[in-house]
Design brief:
181 residues, alpha+beta, 2 domains, 3-stranded antiparallel β-sheet, 10% strand
Length: 181
């Protein structure tokens, strides 16, 4: 995802502006191949309307980068077009079977979550990565599950961890994902 793309340069009739942008990205950034079309993150009609009333002058676009090494490099340094550097962010499309690392719920990811952290092991008010055993002498590392933990799913309240195959909410999420494909 590329942020703050000037609409005056690329928001033209049809997809000509986005095709031009794609060619410029590939021409000005060594090793960058964009195998698919570039598209606006928001609805193009809504972007045009907001531009016409002076509400916005730039928007974000999404493209598929070929290879995780390339994408990580672009996120780190940005991408250049017409001599201008743009900030790049990784875009993750969340489906019903995506699990939030912050509160261990299904159907969204942590960067879209506004809830307080919930542990996937014990349902405590901390992230799973911060879970630790309170039993003196336990050698389990922080963020690990040990035999002393009373397992409790924050999703269905069952006696298992949030990502267990025994969790009814995980089963529901997996079924919804299969049905949406």
């Amino acid at each position: 995802m590329i942020h703050a793309v000037p609409l005056v340069w690329y928001m033209v009739k049809g997809t000509q502006g986005l095709q031009k942008m794609r060619k410029e990205f590939e021409a000005e950034n060594e090793g960058v191949t964009i195998p698919t079309q570039v598209w606006w993150l928001a609805n193009p009609r809504a972007i045009r309307e907001r531009r016409q009333i002076g509400e916005i002058a730039a928007s974000s676009v999404v493209f598929v980068g070929k290879g995780s090494k390339l994408v990580k490099g672009l996120v780190k340094k940005g991408i250049k077009a017409v001599g201008v550097w743009y900030r790049v962010g990784a875009y993750t499309n969340a489906g019903p079977d995506n699990r939030c690392e912050l509160r261990c719920g299904w159907g969204h990811i942590e960067n879209k979550c506004s809830s307080k952290p919930t542990c996937g092991y014990c349902s405590g008010h901390h992230q799973t990565s911060d879970h630790k055993c309170n039993v003196v002498g336990c050698t389990a590392k922080q963020g690990s599950l040990c035999g002393h933990t009373l397992e409790k799913s924050p999703n269905c309240k069952g006696n298992h961890i949030a990502f267990s195959n025994r969790c009814a909410k995980k089963t529901e999420a997996a079924k919804a994902a299969r049905q949406s494909k």
